[in-house]
């Protein structure tokens, strides 16, 4: 008797760990960094590197496995993907391959009796909240890397600081929006990100994003930057919609933004801005489909 969990442990895990170890080494990581990234010992990494651990050729050659290995290796190597997200992504593929797919076939080879049995293995939800939250955090990290490597971004940071945010698909509150704890600040001419993206840490940028979404505008990410009339013109010249809203109606943010976008012909990524008033700093908000896109638009326009 052989359980499919044994197939996963004996066939799938050694194979994908071996492929990941090789892919990470190819990306310039040291043996120690590979071990830390995969949560295994350096001696295990050495064995994988020297081909001392057997792996399943059918699993190694599967296009979905190859694609996942490349995606996870890229994410771990750049820091865009956490170990938690890597684990979730691999778990999702495992359950997919168990469900009448590749691992089920390997299981049937080990247990021929299963071929004539009507067995339906349950699968993990590929749209689980933990997977979605890790994907959003990864997306914000990619956007932040674009901003912090961009020449001159620090000059766009307002006095209150900037924040790059992205929300979950069904976001309704600020707890469903990931951003930078403490915001992004200009420290001696350098954009400084104090901590890893987290959910529920952005109040104002998240509120603007949620208020815009509440009026049926299909955006999932936003970045607040300093307002400048010339910069607004630059966005317009580059083909992006710009919409002004009333800065004095901050207590009715959703309604104010709703009035502003109601009849606007909005591009996929666009700019909401308010020119300030007594005690209110003028701010622009670049809103779009995801954090990397928003960051790239700012980089390209500026």
UniProtKB/TrEMBL annotation:
The UniProt record lists the keyword Transcription: no
Domain HTH cro/C1-type: 20-48
Keywords: DNA-binding
Keyword Disulfide bond among UniProt keywords: no
GO molecular function, one term: DNA binding
Top-level taxon of origin: Archaea
Name of this protein: DNA-binding protein
Classification of source organism: Archaea, Methanobacteriati, Methanobacteriota, Stenosarchaea group, Halobacteria
């Amino acid at each position: 008797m052989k359980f499919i969990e044994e197939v996963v442990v004996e066939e799938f895990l050694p194979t994908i760990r071996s492929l990941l170890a090789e892919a990470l080494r190819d990306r310039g990581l040291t043996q120690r960094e590979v071990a830390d990234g995969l949560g295994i010992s350096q001696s295990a990494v050495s064995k994988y590197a020297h081909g001392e651990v057997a792996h399943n050729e059918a699993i190694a050659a599967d296009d979905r496995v190859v694609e996942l290995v490349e995606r996870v290796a890229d994410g771990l190597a750049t820091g865009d993907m956490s170990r938690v997200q890597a684990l979730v992504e691999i778990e999702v593929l495992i359950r997919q391959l168990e469900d009448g797919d590749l691992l089920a076939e390997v299981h049937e080879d080990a247990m021929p009796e299963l071929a004539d049995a009507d067995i339906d293995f349950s699968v993990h939800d590929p749209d689980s909240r933990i997977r979605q939250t890790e994907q959003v955090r990864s997306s914000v990290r990619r956007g932040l890397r674009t901003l912090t490597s961009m020449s001159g971004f620090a000059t766009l940071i307002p006095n209150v600081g900037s924040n790059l945010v992205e929300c979950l698909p069904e976001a309704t509150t600020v707890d469903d929006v990931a951003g930078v704890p403490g915001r992004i600040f200009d420290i001696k001419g350098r954009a400084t990100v104090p901590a890893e993206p987290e959910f529920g840490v952005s109040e104002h940028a998240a509120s603007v994003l949620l208020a815009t979404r509440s009026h049926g505008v299909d955006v999932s990410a936003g970045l607040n930057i300093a307002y400048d009339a010339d910069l607004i013109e630059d966005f317009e010249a580059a083909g992006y919609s710009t919409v002004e809203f009333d800065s004095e109606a901050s207590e009715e943010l959703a309604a104010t933004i709703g009035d502003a976008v109601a009849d606007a012909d909005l591009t996929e990524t666009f700019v909401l801005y308010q020119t300030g008033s007594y005690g209110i700093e003028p701010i622009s908000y670049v809103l779009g489909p995801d954090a990397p896109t928003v960051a790239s638009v700012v980089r390209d326009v500026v």
